[in-house]
């Protein structure tokens, strides 16, 4: 069973590339971020034509997440992260959760946090606290679970082409990294890192400054597995070639392969 995540950076603009990737690689589940579409504008019919059923949580022009499943309808279990005591209402569409083939799938688009310091960075850290709370709830279910998507965190120095270039970015700040480490400390397995411990694996290349051509990328798209799923991990990788195609997203798809249905 292949489960993938892909920050598509505008589902309408990238739809031909997205359909191409789905048909060529055929993941059982595909989680999408930055669909940048309102709910009523989501192109569900295009996916149904190639055998995928979808649920989505949209927002006009920004954010938005979706879960696609091959041949089955995802059973939605949570839309948006629950608020913690003292939190204000959050209008941003960044989290969607469903059951697919006996696996709990949590798709997320974590806030970028730039510029930092400032309110956007504060929102990022608050969102990560809410994420940890939800992931602890999922942990207690003791079910095969994967939390995946664009985390907008570069976990370690080995996960970026240049420590110096990213030194002031919200993606590498100690507070961001500490929050990510706390997720792992709760017992979740970073699949791509586990199988590539030396690093040097990128999932994102900026459109600017020839980043793709120079391979100046970094790793911000992650797949975190509960113990029940980590025991079934076979492989993980990045479909890097799709970043080089015409009108591509600035992210490449990331996937894990697990044993089972």
From TrEMBL:
GO terms for molecular function: double-stranded DNA 3'-5' DNA exonuclease activity; metal ion binding. Signal peptide: none annotated. GO terms for biological process: DNA repair. InterPro entries: AP_endonuc_1, Endo/exonu/phosph_ase_sf, Endo/exonuclease/phosphatase, ExoIII-like. The record marks 251 as: Interaction with DNA substrate. Probably binds two magnesium or manganese ions per subunit. The record marks 152 as: Transition state stabilizer. The record marks 221 as: Important for catalytic activity. Its EC number is 3.1.11.2. The active site is at residues 109, 150, 251. It comes from the Bacteria. Its cofactor is Mg(2+); Mn(2+). Mg(2+) binds at residues 7, 34, 150, 152, 250-251. SUPFAM superfamilies: DNase I-like. Residues 4-251 form the Endonuclease/exonuclease/phosphatase domain. Keywords: Hydrolase, Magnesium, Manganese, Metal-binding. PANTHER family: EXODEOXYRIBONUCLEASE III. Belongs to the DNA repair enzymes AP/ExoA family. This is Exodeoxyribonuclease III. It comes from Parerythrobacter jejuensis. The lineage of its organism: Bacteria, Pseudomonadati, Pseudomonadota, Alphaproteobacteria, Sphingomonadales.
């Amino acid at each position: 069973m292949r489960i993938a995540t892909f920050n598509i950076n505008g589902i309408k603009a990238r739809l031909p590339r997205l359909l191409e990737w789905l048909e060529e690689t055929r993941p059982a589940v595909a989680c999408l971020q930055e669909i940048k579409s309102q709910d009523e504008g989501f192109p569900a019919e295009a996916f149904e034509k190639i055998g995928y059923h979808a649920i989505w949580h949209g927002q006009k022009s920004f954010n938005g997440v979706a879960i696609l499943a091959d041949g089955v309808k995802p059973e939605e279990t949570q839309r948006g992260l629950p608020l913690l005591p003292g939190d204000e209402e959050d209008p941003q569409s960044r989290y969607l959760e469903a059951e697919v083939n006996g696996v709990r799938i949590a798709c997320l688009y974590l806030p970028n946090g730039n510029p930092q310091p400032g309110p956007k960075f504060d929102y990022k850290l608050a969102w990560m606290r809410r994420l940890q709370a939800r992931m602890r709830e999922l942990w207690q279910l003791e079910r095969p679970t994967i939390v995946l998507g664009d985390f907008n965190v570069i976990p370690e120095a080995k996960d970026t082409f240049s420590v110096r270039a990213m030194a002031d970015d919200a993606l590498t700040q100690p507070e961001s990294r500490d929050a990510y480490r706390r997720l792992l400390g709760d017992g979740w397995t970073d699949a791509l890192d586990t199988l590539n411990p030396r690093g040097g694996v990128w999932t994102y290349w900026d459109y600017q400054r020839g980043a793709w051509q120079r391979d100046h990328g970094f790793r911000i798209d992650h797949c975190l597995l509960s113990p029940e799923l980590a025991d079934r991990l076979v492989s993980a990788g990045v479909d890097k070639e799709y970043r080089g195609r015409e009108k591509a997203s600035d992210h490449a798809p990331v996937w894990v392969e697990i044993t089972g249905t």
